[in-house]
Design brief:
Hydantoin permease; binds phenylalanine; symporter activity; binds sodium ion; membrane; YocR/YhdH-like; mainly alpha; 454 residues
């Protein structure tokens, strides 16, 4: 399958495969579930603009950094640093990433499980003839149950493991090619419907008219954390995927395509959700349930809503799957290469361990809800620690590593294989990874922990 120097490693077979896999990783629950929910919590437009600024100034350069590290080392997130910086502590960035993958997939699987449960509900026409309040109640009852969500979560984990065992590149290329465009089409329909609802204007204002006085230190850190989360950065996903990319691939193009696709889809999700939120009198800051209590109301009112709602939750589950496999792959590649385990054994071990933590996340919505830390239940805690702590810290060190350790010459060499980065762009990139990204991340984090006050 591959004709790479290292011989026995997998690789993506086509240029499209690379973009499809990286976009498949990026586009997921982060765009459609998490972005609207946290934008709602942190006040809408002001949050959106800060998030977009972080995508540009930090997300883009860190994504290119990860691909450079991955492709030049041809190793997993931990092994990559051992190859590129032997005998140095840089490798611990990789460990942080493997840890982040654990935490993220534990709660990600829960939400994906809800999405699968909503496919079933849609098939049964379970939302029809229900008021917005009843739909809200339906969601709460569903996630608090100790059995069903756990079963759907485990089904999702088994599906993810199945694809990872077969090998990423065989699994994804085919599916992303057809299903991602379909997801975009459904989103277009949803946007049109949502925007034409009575009272939609308030939702568009909420999403696009910033009131920067609403911004809090928490909101800024969440925007930063989400920039990493949504682009699959900071934990070595794109180091791992980068290691499967062939030398003739244009890394800069890949980065731009993936970032644009991810951002557009998040914006579309916002346009589909917020007008409806306001039209139906739903609370925008209600949290993780936002899309699940909003969208069924929209489907209700659409001609063909029955079919749309089934399709939407199927595609959402698939989008979640192409992301979850990229998270799982970080852990699997690490077990495989660092402990000399087989692909199958590594996948099973990783899936079992993550699922145990995942079940606790699911139960923390119901029976385990009394157990909290800093006011967060287990689910929110895993989300908060991974997105707002592990990913930004990981991203900061990845930027520093490429900026200061690898350096301009090595970056230029790696990027020049299959692409170009003109002198000026290269200088901008180096400036961003050496200074802007690390300093901005440090300031946002220190500010959030009250160690630095503005
Ligand atoms: N980017 C994915 C999403 O938006 C989630 C993800 C995070 C995937 C971290 C890989 C690594 O849903
Ligand atoms: Na995303």
């Amino acid at each position: 399958m591959s004709n790479l120097p290292s011989g026995n490693r997998d690789s993506f077979s086509s240029k499209f495969g690379v973009i499809a896999a990286a976009a498949g990783s990026a586009v997921g629950l982060g765009n459609i579930w998490k972005f609207p929910y946290i934008a709602g919590v942190y006040g809408g437009a002001a949050f959106l603009f800060v998030y977009l600024a972080f995508i540009l100034a930090i997300g883009l350069p860190v994504m290119l950094s990860e691909l450079i590290i991955g492709r030049s080392s041809r190793k997993n997130a931990f092994g990559a640093f051992k190859v590129l910086a032997p005998g140095t502590p840089w490798r611990y960035i990789g460990i942080l990433g493997v840890g982040a993958a654990f935490l993220i997939l534990s709660f990600y699987g829960v939400v994906a499980g809800w999405s699968i449960e909503y496919i079933v509900l849609s098939l049964k026409n379970g939302f029809s003839a229900k008021s917005p309040d009843e739909i809200g109640l339906l969601f709460t009852t569903l996630i608090e149950s100790p059995v069903k969500p756990v079963i759907f979560q485990l089904i999702f984990m088994v599906l993810s493991a199945g694809i990872v065992i077969v090998g990423i590149q065989k699994g994804i290329e085919k599916y992303t090619k057809i299903l991602m465009p379909l997801l975009v089409i459904i989103l277009v329909f949803l946007c049109v419907k949502s925007v034409s609802l009575e009272g939609a204007k308030a939702g568009l204002n909420f999403l696009f008219k910033p009131d920067f006085s609403k911004l809090t230190a928490d909101g800024i850190l969440s925007a930063l954390g989400h920039a990493f989360f949504t682009l699959s950065l900071g934990m070595g996903t794109l180091i791992t995927y980068g290691s499967y990319i062939q030398k003739d691939n244009n890394l800069v193009n890949t980065v731009i395509n993936v970032t644009v696709a991810d951002t557009v889809i998040a914006l579309m999700a916002g346009i589909a959700i917020f007008p409806a939120v306001f039209a139906f009198g739903i609370e925008p800051s209600q949290g993780p349930g936002l899309i699940f209590v909003t969208l069924p109301n929209v489907f209700h009112q659409m001609p063909g809503g029955y079919v749309f709602s089934i399709l939407f939750f199927v595609l959402l589950s698939v989008a979640a799957l192409t992301s979850s496999i990229s998270i799982l792959e970080v852990v699997v590649a690490y077990f495989k290469e660092e402990f000399n385990m087989g692909r199958k054994a590594s996948t099973i071990l990783a899936t079992v361990l993550i699922s145990i933590l995942g079940v606790l996340c699911s139960l923390s919505m119901g029976v385990l809800s009394p157990y909290t830390f800093m006011g967060l239940n287990i689910f929110d805690l895993m989300d908060w620690i991974s997105a707002n702590l592990f990913l930004p810290v990981g991203g900061m060190f990845i930027a520093l590593f490429v900026g200061w350790y690898l350096g301009r010459k090595k970056v230029k060499e790696e990027v020049a294989q299959g692409g170009t980065l003109s002198g000026a762009l290269l200088s901008i990139f180096m400036f961003l990874v050496k200074f802007i990204a690390p300093i901005a991340i440090a300031i946002v984090m220190l500010n959030n922990f009250g160690l630095l006050k503005f």
